[in-house]
Every structure is written in structure tokens, then in C-alpha cells.
Amino acid sequence: MASRAFALLFLFGTITAHAADVAGVKLDDKTRVGNAELTLNGAGLRKRAFFQVYAIGLYLPQKATSTAAVLEQAGPKRVAIHMLRNVGADAFTEALADGMRANLSEAEVKMLEPRIKELSATIAEVGEAKKGMALTLDWTGTATQLVVQGKPAGKPIPGEDFYRALLRIWIGDKPVQDDLKRALLGS
User: Fold this and answer.
1) What is residue 18's predicted lDDT score, i.e. its pLDDT?
2) What is the pTM of this model?
3) C-alpha 12: how far from chain center
4) CATH for 2-184 (1.10.3210.10, 3.20.20.70, 3.50.70.10, 3.30.2130.10)
């Protein structure tokens, strides 16, 4: 009986350590950006045709189930991406830019263009996003920071409008994948 209780306690502890398992990638239920503790809002799998491209998790200060609630939420946020296949820098940045264009007006895209180019240049410096690589796009409260394998890459990119545009790639009106949007919003 005692060993059974211990086994249940151990299992419960394991469940709380990782909030999600997406295609074999374990996503923690909590993370930190700066001094802020964030909670996993939702997680899912990005697929392209029949290929698994990456596992992704959205971390927020408080859970939210709508795009508006996520975008309006103050404070740091994180999009955690775990690559499941190799993707070249050009293809990765093109996909990000296409996702923003699909969810923004032409005027908004034009206004963000210098910052899109800045992020693209940083990703180009990183090179290929390789299978197993962990990338995060963090909103620090003042800027967007790309983090690769736990280390900041490039300079922080100012403007919450830019981070909101990035979030719209996955949770906007025209997300890259409808079921992924639902998964990230926990619905």
C-alpha cells in the first residue's frame, strides 16, 4: 500500500513538472522571463503537409483563452519553439513574415518592416534552426528578444506592436494552423 501511494505521489510530481508533452517535447508548466513567472497557456504541434516542424508553447502571466485577452495582457510573455526538423534561416524568416502579413494590414506591415528585417538578420546569423534546437521569442516588457539554446541572439527589438504581430502568426485571425491556435489558447 505504501509503495502504491509513493508511486502515485511520484506520478503526480512528474505530471506537475511538465504541463505538456508535444511530439516527445516536454514543456514545463512554468518559466521565467526577467523577474516574471509565466504559466504555460497552451502548447501544440506545427505541421507542414505531413511533416512535424516544431513543438510550441505560449507562456503568459495569466491564462487566456482568446486572442484579444492574450494581446491585451500586460507584462512579459514567451513563445517557446522546439525544432523537430531542420529549417533553413531563409525559410524560417519567410514563414514568420508570411504569418505576420496574413494577419496585419499592408500599412501595419510597412511600419514593422525595419523590425522584421532586424529579426530576419538575427535569424540569418544563427543560421539553420536544427532539429532539437530550442528557440524562444520573449517579450521582456520593453522589447522582443530572440533566445537560442538559452542565450540571447541579436539585439532586443523595441515595440510591443512588433511582439503582438509575432503572436498573431499563431493566434491571429488567419493563424498558420487552426488547430495550433486552439491548442495555444487552451481551447
Assistant:
1) 53
2) 0.88
3) 26
4) 3.50.70.10
